[in-house]
Amino acid sequence: MDHAADAYRTDLMTITRFVLNEQSKYPESRGDFSILLSHIVLGCKFVCSAVNKAGLAKLIGLAGETNVQGEEQKKLDVLSNEVFVKALVSSGRTCILVSEEDEEATFVEHSKRGKYCVVFDPLDGSSNIDCGVSIGTIFGIYLVKDGAEPTVGDVLKPGKNMVAAGYCMYGSSCTLVLSSGSGVNGFTLDPSLGEFILTHPDIRIPKKGKIYSVNEGNAKNWDEPTRKYVERCKFPQDGSSPKSLRYIGSMVADVHRTLLYGGIFMYPADKKSPNGKLRVLYEVFPMSFLMEQAGGQAFTGNIRALDLVPTKIHQRSPVFLGSYDDVEEIKALYAAQEGKA
Ligand SMILES: O=P(O)(O)OC[C@H]1O[C@](O)(COP(=O)(O)O)[C@@H](O)[C@@H]1O
Ligand SMILES: [Mg+2]
Ligand SMILES: [Mg+2]
């Protein structure tokens, strides 16, 4: 199909057109959210092109710095972070930025300030960069009350307070998945047009799935409910077929597959990492927001993930997210352990 010809097809739903349609439902809107999103989209396009030519452009390997998590930063971690910080500040719609790669929150200077806080993981799946396996960018958006002086307290809020969340996966195709609180939609980048086109309208995750996704290398340190659940996935007692194991090691890619195919993605706590590995603000919350909007759910091993109230910007939390019925099963095992059943 010749996409160039498609450019003249008036019904082509680009992400810009989609967002402006959404905006038109709110006559009082000044378009701030649409402008912010257009800058996030620009950042994703830029990072997508850098990822595609990483090997050619010597963007493979370490940057020589260590981030606040104690992780050695990859060149693409640093570049993606710079791209998104610049794009978000230049939107003129943000006041606080929290990035996985920056120790402190960034307060945007007054003259360029807006009313949104953006929490983001500029490049997720860093361990997969150098081998060309799917990686991504994750973001969440909070709104600061009009006229209020923004403080870090404006992002240390439950995930359910976010007004939007999304991720962009840099894989065999570049896919941006987004929710602003009324369902989840997926857009694929058409490289010939340079436009994200609506390809996955109103994504609904299957109620139950056939896939479980977890790093089994940590199994010996897991707690009882996690061990029992994974055992059940492999050796079901109810006559159903065993689930298949799929684990890419990039949260964006593992969650994208889970959203489309169903099943469960887990990064549980274990003896070595009592709070798991994934960060609440820019990994757990955005993905949990999308999961719930698509009809799934997200659980920490204790509470609904979006009810969590973080106290630190780089706080970690265990997470179990995916198909409603699959997460219900692990919730029951934790409740049983709590003696609540
Ligand atoms: O190698 P592990 O312990 O399974 O961890 C993989 C997880 O770590 C991450 O790579 C952490 O994210 P970053 O790459 O953004 O630091 C997730 O994408 C992924 O789900
Ligand atoms: Mg990450
Ligand atoms: Mg990262």
UniProtKB/TrEMBL annotation:
NCBIfam families linked: PRK09293.1-1, PRK09293.1-3
Cited InterPro entries: FBPase_C_dom, FBPase_class-1, FBPase_N, FBPtase, Fructose_bisphosphatase_AS
EC number in record: 3.1.3.11
Protein localization: Cytoplasm
UniProt keyword list: Carbohydrate metabolism, Cytoplasm, Hydrolase, Magnesium, Metal-binding
Protein name, per record: Fructose-1,6-bisphosphatase, cytosolic
Chain ranges of the Fructose-1-6-bisphosphatase class I N-terminal domain: 13-201
GO BP: fructose 1,6-bisphosphate metabolic process; fructose 6-phosphate metabolic process; fructose metabolic process; gluconeogenesis; sucrose biosynthetic process
GO cellular component, one term: cytosol
Alphabetical list of SUPFAM superfamilies matching this protein: Carbohydrate phosphatase
Family affiliation: Belongs to the FBPase class 1 family.
Species in which this protein is naturally found: Picea sitchensis (Sitka spruce)
Tree of life domain: Eukaryota
Catalytic reaction equation(s): beta-D-fructose 1,6-bisphosphate + H2O = beta-D-fructose 6-phosphate + phosphate
Coiled coil: none
Residues of the Fructose-1-6-bisphosphatase class 1 C-terminal domain: 205-334
Cofactor: Mg(2+)
GO function terms (MF aspect): fructose 1,6-bisphosphate 1-phosphatase activity; metal ion binding
